[in-house]
Amino acid sequence: MTSVSLVGPGEEPIVLDVPTAPVRVPTTRRYLMCAPEHFTVAYSINPWMDPTRPISTALAVEQWTALKETYEGLGHRVETIQPEPGLPDMVFAANSGTVVDGRVLGSRFRAPQRAAEADHFRRWFLANGYRDVVMPERTNEAEGDLAWTGRYLLAGTGFRTDPLAHAEAQEALGVPVISLQLVDPRYYHLDVALFVLADDLVAYYPEAFSPGSLRVLERLFPDAVVATEEDAACLGLNAVSDGRHVVLPVEAVHLAGEVAKRGFEPVFVDISELRKSGGGPKCCTMELRD
């Protein structure tokens, strides 16, 4: 047995005795992020958004900065894109591009309020040396609904991304695509229902998926971490893993304990203000897989 200490900001450590797990090795990642300088909740396009609730842009910036510094403290490189006035959800960079082996598939948003974000990110890619950039014809909310496992591209649909965009993704990125049907409107994107821990290992919330898609996940990932309702409800599955460290919301203590049992090291962040718009660590983080 191995003792694992889980510590959230301002909390007493929780010590778990867990079975000896595989040694997990992190890999250095490169991320693209956008500061929430214009963050607010001025409209509602998902069940988390309530324009009548008070919002602190300053607190959102503080939480985003802490997330960025967490990545940098783990040795990762963070690029940034200039936030644009009038685009309060541009902070959720994951929704604006999917990059695999240097190939870029841009985004096409379902909600008109976010549509302009796609071209800002397209221009960032071109200005930063990417030449293989494809913009989708079908609605495609990028890493919000597309998760690269190292072997497959898991592709969510049901609320945002058009299922026909999955075929576009396969053509643009040249990787096999597995379609998954989402059924709970609270978990409207794949990245709030599932995240990749390491090559061929994921964590997911079963009730977010249709029965057939759940059987697919069970077949592909028989050793997956299965999350609870409490894990999902704090957006615990909107997490980011580098193969060893798992950055996740501070409330996701149960999920942290489960990933610790698999040899991963949970790293807590506070995303309470950003969560008012339905986003968490992963939503703020596009991975640049060059």
Automatic annotation (TrEMBL):
Record GO terms (molecular function): dimethylargininase activity
Alphabetic keyword roster: Hydrolase
SUPFAM superfamilies assigned: Pentein (SSF55909)
Top enzyme category: hydrolase
Coiled-coil parts of chain: none
InterPro entries hit by this protein: DDAH-like
Protein EC: 3.5.3.18
Family the entry assigns: Belongs to the DDAH family.
Protein name, as recorded: Dimethylargininase
Organism per entry: Saccharothrix lopnurensis
